Amino acid sequence: MVPNSEERLKDYLANNPEAAREWSENFKLRNDPRITPIGKFLRKSSLDELPQFWNVLLGEMSLVGPRPVSRDELQMYSIHLESYLSMSPGITGPWQVSGRNNLTYEQRVAIDVDYSRQAHLRLDIKILLKTASVVLRRTGL
């Protein structure tokens, strides 16, 4: 992140109505002004996910599960919040292999809820294999 990232985001959203709409719908931006050039490379190559393996070793995350969200994003899960919170977050999951950034936040929530209802080892293995393909092809960035 760049210095004064929150101020930069606030100014950017105030001056760009389209970006403000994207932020309010998705809690992220395709062209986030807070990300450094190195950070953009790390995100595009998914290398920014590597530190999360430490969280898996500590038992705080799973390899496969719903994507971790910020406190602000929890409101998007509304009636499905309990279902979402019942699972450990994952480094990868159904959202990442189902379109990623090409999906709306509502679609992401629906995918997470479906996964929480039908999660099993075979599905996790399938998601792990699809993740490799998605990362190598840089799909849904």
Automatic annotation (TrEMBL):
<keyword id="KW-1133">Transmembrane helix</keyword>
<protein>
    <submittedName>
        <fullName>Sugar transferase</fullName>
    </submittedName>
</protein>
<keyword id="KW-0808">Transferase</keyword>
<keyword id="KW-0472">Membrane</keyword>
<dbReference type="GO" id="GO:0005886">
    <property type="term" value="C:plasma membrane"/>
</dbReference>
<comment type="similarity">
    <text>Belongs to the bacterial sugar transferase family.</text>
</comment>
<keyword id="KW-0270">Exopolysaccharide synthesis</keyword>
<dbReference type="InterPro" id="IPR003362">
    <property type="entry name" value="Bact_transf"/>
</dbReference>
<dbReference type="Pfam" id="PF02397">
    <property type="entry name" value="Bac_transf"/>
</dbReference>
<dbReference type="GO" id="GO:0000271">
    <property type="term" value="P:polysaccharide biosynthetic process"/>
</dbReference>
<keyword id="KW-0812">Transmembrane</keyword>
<feature type="domain" description="Bacterial sugar transferase">
    <location>
        <begin position="18"/>
        <end position="136"/>
    </location>
</feature>
<keyword id="KW-1003">Cell membrane</keyword>
<dbReference type="GO" id="GO:0016780">
    <property type="term" value="F:phosphotransferase activity, for other substituted phosphate groups"/>
</dbReference>
